[in-house]
């Protein structure tokens, strides 16, 4: 079972990642996202995406530090409350229901220690340099994410940096199989969900991208490495084979419209 200290670190770090992602993906020239805290909650809110439960949510600042009166602390813009297993108590559930929240999706978080020695990367995996943002945008477009020239110009400083690293896996012919990212903040790293081209699946790209990023995290000297997956998925199994362990499955309680 994960320690409360680790879960609290994860919560703070994951909100920092959400704030970064909001700025990185915003369609507006100026960021509209903000973070804040009350005595018992940390939260994020994005006025440009008011219905998003990812960009407008709160989580207790300490595991289990909830009771029914605390929900009144939250700003009206909060669209979701992320509840950890220790916080699923009858009085909390009843208060959430009575104030218009309903259980929605879940988030399965995993953590890993930095590898003591470099992991074997079975495929060619390259970390993209700062000058390779355009090729990375081309890859994102190939997966269905539009990146016109004006968006590239506005967002290029967020990509292929020391803080937000991009890795590409290729086969022996040099064909791109897939890619993944890693976000670094202070002494923690978060591995983003990797993408593998459908025709390349089942050939080890996901495992190779995991190993390469774990090695990069170790080289960066981080203390904790996190990721999230769909519970019970192939990605979940791959992560556990790479040394990750499930530390919590949180429920997102969404405010009813």
Please explain how this structure is put together.
This protein is α+β, with helices and mostly antiparallel strands and 257 residues long. It has 2 domains: 110 residues, no CATH class; 99 residues, Gcn5-related N-acetyltransferase (GNAT) (Aminopeptidase), CATH 3.40.630.30. It is 28% helix and 29% strand. Strands 1, 2, 3, 4, 5, 6, 7, 8, 9, 10, 11 and 12 form a 12-stranded mixed β-sheet that branches. A hairpin with a 3-residue loop joins strand 1 and strand 2. It starts with a helix and ends with a strand.
Key features?
single chain; 257 residues; alpha+beta; Aminopeptidase; 2 domains; 12-stranded mixed β-sheet; 12 strands; 28% helix; 29% strand
The residue ranges in which pLDDT falls below 50 over 5 or more consecutive positions are none
Biggest beta-sheet profile: 12 strands, mixed
Count of DSSP E strands? 12
Number of helices: 6
Strand content: 25-35%
**Ends: how far apart?**
36 Å
Apparent shape: globular
Kindly state the mean pLDDT as a whole number? 93
Radius of gyration: 19 Å
């Amino acid at each position: 079972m994960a320690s409360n200290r680790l879960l609290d670190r994860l919560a703070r770090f994951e909100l920092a990642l959400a704030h970064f992602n909001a700025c990185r993906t915003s369609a507006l020239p100026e960021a509209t996202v903000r973070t804040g805290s009350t005595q018992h909650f940390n939260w994020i809110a994005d006025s440009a995406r008011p219905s998003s439960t990812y960009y407008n949510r709160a989580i207790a600042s300490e595991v289990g530090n909830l009771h029914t009166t605390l929900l009144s602390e939250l700003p009206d813009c909060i669209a979701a409350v992320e509840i950890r297993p220790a916080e699923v108590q009858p009085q909390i559930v009843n208060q959430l229901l009575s104030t218009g929240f309903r259980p929605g999706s879940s988030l399965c978080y995993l953590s890993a220690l930095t590898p003591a020695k470099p992991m074997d990367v079975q495929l060619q995996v390259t970390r993209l340099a700062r000058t390779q943002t355009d090729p990375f945008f081309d890859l994102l477009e190939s997966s269905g994410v539009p990146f016109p020239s004006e968006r590239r110009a506005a967002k290029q400083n967020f990509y292929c940096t020391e803080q937000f690293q991009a890795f590409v896996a290729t086969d022996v012919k040099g064909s791109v199989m897939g890619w993944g990212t890693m976000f670094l903040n202070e002494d923690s790293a978060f591995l983003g969900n990797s993408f593998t081209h459908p025709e390349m699946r089942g050939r080890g790209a996901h495992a190779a991208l995991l190993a390469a990023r774990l090695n990069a995290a170790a080289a960066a000297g981080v203390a904790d490495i996190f990721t999230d997956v769909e519970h019970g998925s192939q990605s979940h199994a791959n992560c556990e084979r790479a040394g990750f362990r499930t530390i919590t499955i949180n429920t997102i309680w969404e405010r009813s419209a």
